[in-house]
Amino acid sequence: MLSPTEFLEVVRLTPLVAIDLIVADADGRVLVGQRRNRPARGTWSVPGGRIHKGERLDAAFTRIVETELGIASMHRSSGRFVGVYEHHYPDNFAAKNGIGTHYVVLAYAFMLDSRVPVGRFDQHSHYAWLWPDELLARDDVHRNTKDYFR
User: Fold this and answer.
1) CB 120: neighbour CB atoms within 10 A?
2) CA 147 to chain centroid
3) pLDDT of residue 120
4) Which residues does residue 83 pair with via DSSP β-bridges, in sequence order?
5) How far apart are the first and last CA of the chain?
6) Is 21's pLDDT higher than 80?
7) H or E element at residue 18
8) CATH homologous superfamily of 4-141
9) Is the omega angle on the peptide bond into residue 15 within 30 degrees of 0, that is, cis?
10) At a CB cut-off of 8 Å and minimum separation 6, what does 6 contact?
């Protein structure tokens, strides 16, 4: 496990690999959460998380779904691979000036019943189900999330 200082050096020097979860309900609304943490604190985005060193994609997907949504034991085969995206943020988890964050993101889409409670509030302060047109029109939805729907 890296210390915060070591991890900041990784963020400064390399891209991070992550998985984003594009979760829709049967009506076509998309789940977004308002971010508690940097980068992009305060904006609305799809749930997601970084892949850990040595972690297999299947294990990362299952962990990220559980960590972000509170749903245990979901397999990557439950999702549909959407594509590879790049996310660039001017800030970083430690709020250190001059260090941006670069993610290479593997996006996966799947459906959930919007009546089932989802979400863990250590990463997001609120969750909402938004129509794609609504999501695209809002100024507080991060552009990286909007890119999935353009």
Assistant:
1) 15
2) 13
3) 73
4) 107
5) 37
6) yes
7) strand 16-24
8) Nucleoside Triphosphate Pyrophosphohydrolase (3.90.79.10)
9) no
10) none
pLDDT reported for residue 90:
95
Kindly list the domain boundaries of the chain, sorted by start residue. Answer: 4-141
Residue 23 has what pLDDT?
A: 96
pLDDT of residue 123: 77
Read off the pLDDT of residues 58-97 as tens digits, 9 standing for 90 and up.
999 999 999 999 999 899 999 999 999 999 999 999 999 9
Distance CA 101, CA 92 (A): 6
**Which amino acid is located at 38 in the chain?**
R
Write b or e for each residue in 32-57: b if 16 or more Cβ atoms lie within 10 A of its Cβ, otherwise e: bbbbeeebbeebbbbbbbbbeeeeee
Q: How far apart are CA 19 and CA 32, in angstroms?
A: 15
Q: Which residues contact 14 (CB under 8 A, 6 or more apart)?
A: 102
**Hey, what are 23's tokens?**
């979760």
